[in-house]
Amino acid sequence: MSSRRSRISEEEMDELIAKLQSLLPESRRRNAGRVSSAKLLKETCSYIKSLHREVNDLSDRLSDLISTMDSNSAQAEIIRGLLRS
Description:
Family: Belongs to the bHLH protein family.
GO molecular function, one term: protein dimerization activity
Number of strands: 0
Structural class: mainly alpha
Largest sheet: none
Pfam families: bHLH_ILI
Keywords: Growth regulation, Transcription, Transcription regulation
InterPro entries: bHLH_dom, HLH_DNA-bd_sf, PRE
Distance between the termini: 35 Å
Radius of gyration: 21 Å
Strand content: under 5%
Shape: elongated
């Protein structure tokens, strides 16, 4: 791997920022045009943190659900199948 980093043009950077902005639900709703890169990156970090919290919450809920199920039930088998996928 080369020690020199490839540089991207300002146009490419603008395109990447626009793509990132389109992925954030808050930015899509606001649709207020161009936002500063710093603000967009902060929003991105906040969104990723909220997704992590949601995943952890869903994981906890799934664990609770599985622990209350009969391990031979059809529901337990469906969940096991989904987790293997």
